[in-house]
Protein: Peptidase aspartic putative domain-containing protein
Amino acid sequence: MGSSIDTTRVSLIVDSGPATDRIELPNVFTKHKINIQSTHMAKMEEIAGLPYLQGIDLPFAGEKEVGLLIGQDIPRALMPLEIRRGKAKDGPYAVRTALGWSLHGPVNKVGTTEQNTHATSTFIQGDIGLEEQVHKFWKLEASDTLHDERGMSVNDQRALKMWKGGISIDGGHYQLPVPFKRHPPCLPNNRWLAEQRLQSLARKLGKDDSLRRKYQEGIEDLLKKGYAEEVEKQECQSEDQAIWYLPHHPVFHPMKPDKLRIVFDCADKSGGVSLNDEVLQGPDLTNKLTGVLLRFRQGPVAFMADVEAMFHQVRVPVEERDVLRFLWWPSGDMTQQPKVYRMCVHLFGGTWSPSCCNFALRQTADDNQDEFSPEAVEIVKRNFYVDDCLVSVESEEKAVNLSDELRNLLQRGGFKLTKWLSNKPSVLKSIPTEERSKQLKGLDLNLDALPVDRALGVSWDVERDCLGYKLSPKDKPLTRRGLLSIVSSIYDPLGYANPFILRARLLLQELTRMKLGWDDPVPEEHRQIWQGWSEELAEMKEFEVNRCVKPHGFGTVTEYQLHHFADASEKAYGAVSYLVMKNTSSELHSSLVMAKSHLAPLKTMTIPRLELAAATLAAKLDVAVKRELDVQEPIHSTFWTDSTIVLQYIRSTDGRFRTFAANRIATIHNASEASQWHYVDTKSNPADDISRGMSAGELKKSTRWLQGPEFLLMPQEHWPKEPQVMEPLRQSDPDPKINSEGVMCVGGRLKNSKLQTQEKHPVILPKKNHIVKPIIGVSMLYQVTQGESMLCH
Structure:
């Protein structure tokens, strides 16, 4: 009968002492224990009578356990260098290998038994990456990252200190050190591994002539632009400094299949160590993507640009470049011996590169702030997401001036802005033709329509100035794996398509709840639901959001308001935010700015708890949106929920709540005042759409979703009136609790009795309600034994 074990694949370096070689074991499978006993191995006294084995250094295990078995797939470790044997045909013999001496053959057959075992081993690759992806997916569902402002770690501060102390200018570019965890870094000789990876790359390039040409052009471009250099022969022999060879491979952007990027594998391990392991990552200096997009929606005139090969514009000190070595064939001739090259700049694939290059970009702004406008300096610090710059302003003149400033400012740090695109031809005309987006090539800016491009992954119809979605069915199997691949590939950073996408997420959660295998066919009932949803993907191409939150000709904004709506169902909960603006003519306009939703946990949670979680999400949205918007005027925030229980929670001053409620109420109170919270009926609550979902057709037609309920454009006296609810509970009230149906009832010691649930926990009724008064009267007629005070009136 076969059996299976869980194992992990690792790489090791082994030796048997200072007089032996170090052997790389690239594929070692772990096991809790190797079932080899000490009786299976020879003892020193057992070979004492064998003179031909005397004088050699044979290791003896004694009482130690065997910790490693080396198989025939590592011939370098087992290749005989010397053999000692006696005259007996079947006697033991010793073999010297690169790891030292070892003993072979029987020494003492007394007490041994024979056992024949036929074993077949099959290694099955587990869905480790997929499981991690799902784990992150559900972890993201269960947590809120909107207000996740964290300080720097000790290692982050160490990296910053290295950069601040080691920064210099080299040939018009910033030069920054690789932030090693220790000096020098502890890196084994991994050239053999780089050679293996190069041969693997050769096989791949040999099958695709077009790929081979593009790859060769990419290497030549690195050398031509000074991003890489050849290592001289005498330097190749030197071992005075840390050396590391980087495997490399081609990567294609899914949206740009013709563009090849050579990526260096800094995570590749040799001897259990990778270059990334030895380097500090550095602090996260990248602006929040949602923040850059929100600011991109503020002004009527928009433009965007891209830093050309941003990582390659920041140089590495000469003394550290040997940890960035790589192998390549001269002139791309794969029949020749490869030569040694090294990168001179920070590179794609280095875990430290994003932080390092963002530091250099910000340093450019700081070092030149006295020569450029404060607005241009602030744009460099706030409006870049890695190498993408997105800006929106109030006028074309301002856009022209800022684009010119930004080009000149970044040139001071060796950065060049390219791929310029704007919704205004006058701005584009101010940019040199060769620096504009390739999509503008051949267009007459006076006559032709501007193209559709992507702004941080979001589809931007530049001519119509709308943000949209290009969703199309993918050819994936109808399995849980296939569905996850499609759902996780949908890009919706600001949540505008949230109600539509929610339906697919709910289906995926249901398959998870059913514990359906990754490659099991989706049951017919769920298959029909999925096919119905996927058929609507094409219809989502017609769903659009105006890029600018202000309508054309709206003029100067004199007042800003943020309105946040929260809602929950048994399936999901979420919040949606609207920016309401008033102009000099007292006209009001409302626009959807951000939405966020989470699926309800797999473990059932009561509706009041989910409603409270939704309200907490609304409070966090307020903090996040205010932090990211660039407005000088104060923004007044209003919060809306259709849960009177949540309003009671928020307004309670004497209530002592359990941990779940207490933590969320504290978050709400830290971000808002109780007076800012209002009631909205479900019919007017747009957050209802992200707690239940919508079809593509419904989403396209929903003005409530895109602009909010109509009352947002009305004076406050026309806002929804709150229904009559109970007064806040007093200290003397009988231990109130919320039951499974979301109704407030009496708690207390009766919960331990054998009474029926309704008798143990009677409902608490409001005394001023016109229905409750007759009930109280009847109860008093029957002389309630607990006394009149227990009627809570």
Q: What stands out?
A: Residues 110-128, 782-793 have pLDDT under 50 and may be disordered. Residues 243 and 323 are 5 Å apart (CA to CA). Residues 154-461 form one domain. The longest strand covers residues 557-568.
